Predict the structure.
Amino acid sequence: MAAGKLFIGRKVREMREANSSTQTAFAERLGISTSYLNQIENNQRPVSATVLLSLAENFKMDIASISGSDSDRLLSALSEALADPVFGTYSPSLQELKLVTQNAPGIARALIAGHQAYRRNSEQLASVDDQMVRTNTPSDPTPYEEVRDFFHFIDNYVDELDLAAETLAGRLGIPENEAGAALPRYLEERHGVRTIRTARGDDPLRRYDADGRILYMNGYAPAPTRTFQTAFQVAAVEERATMDRIVSRAGFRTPEASEICRIGLQNYFAGALCLPYGTFLAAAKEVRHDLELLAARFGASLEQVAHRLSTLQRPGAKGTPVFFARVDRAGNITKRHSAAKLQFARYGGACPLWNVHEAFETPGRIIRQLAETPDGARYLSIATELSKTSGGFNALRPRYAIALGCEVSHARDFVYADGLDLVNRAAFDPIGISCRICERVDCFQRAVPPLKRQLTVDHNLRTALPYKVL
């Protein structure tokens, strides 16, 4: 498979079958020979620009939807799984990986799931965890992992909920009418649910009394948090049937995963209601993704804005493909999504050279970084530290850093690219995904050696690392 050529045989075949068309009839509509169509469907030939346009014109194919983001995510996960020493010396080529992920994604996901089960089992055995005694299925993914993967592989975009939220926002006049005032009023007028602010800083952010139909909100929580939690309650009372259908289709293994997913779906609806798709997308383009301006315009927090930018994946109306992550001070990635080529490691912490860690050293500032990954891809990354509190001096203040970025080809869409040298490769910091799969041999910040690379130790020489990666 030559670089830059587009092999979408499976997608073309699925489109033909969805139209109940034979290869002969389908090829006729496209203006190509049956043999050429057969070769396209079997990925023996790439699809040409002329055929792409014909697919778009005759079968309403969204050309933007075949950018490969889904395959990139699957490709990244499969590549990381196969890097595990359990697979011995086998090292598939990029072409082999692409063939599997593009033509047999089900097999790729099954292999990834099998590898995940192996790792969980191994980690439990190594730590002699009590869970080995308490459960009969130590190889099953945790409910949280199931839900995380569910959102990851649907591109972090839920069309049914997004459209419903946008429709409701239009009826309520959001954002022209402030969501913080419109949503409590809507809950009371439409559903008879009163919203009351509590007066103690240590009260829960949100507590719903179903019998009394009262929504209690922590009066000391930031306004964007209260608005978001109110929108969350709207999802709970209005979109239950929609969420039940989505959860049912997902086929989770456990009731716990289903309930965790419902929370995730309600959070999704809340974000889409406070930041309605079309209006928010237009505003993001207008202000060139300035997080602070978007937060001020929509009465939202920086995290809410950054997270919403990562969900703008509506077919036919996609936003700039970005990556988004939230990281705690220990380097754990607690939220992650990437519509860009960059994919996050499923195991281990984030690269210590990534500017998201530096954000903790400069609270209140948005810091910028030009970064290059080992595959040669270059990115603009911005990061800032966030401190959350809903109380006074004695209240606990969880601290996180969020990172948002894009491939450098889209950097001009961001105000944060102004003044940066986007063409000088020397201006880009070398970063990786995680040490265990990073191929860089000269990284002074490396925590562990890369998997499947031979090491040599010179007892008479000590450099930044006590070994040399061959």
About this structure: Residues 322-460 form a domain with the Beta-Lactamase fold (CATH 3.30.450). The chain has four domains: 9-57, 69-140, 159-309, 322-460.
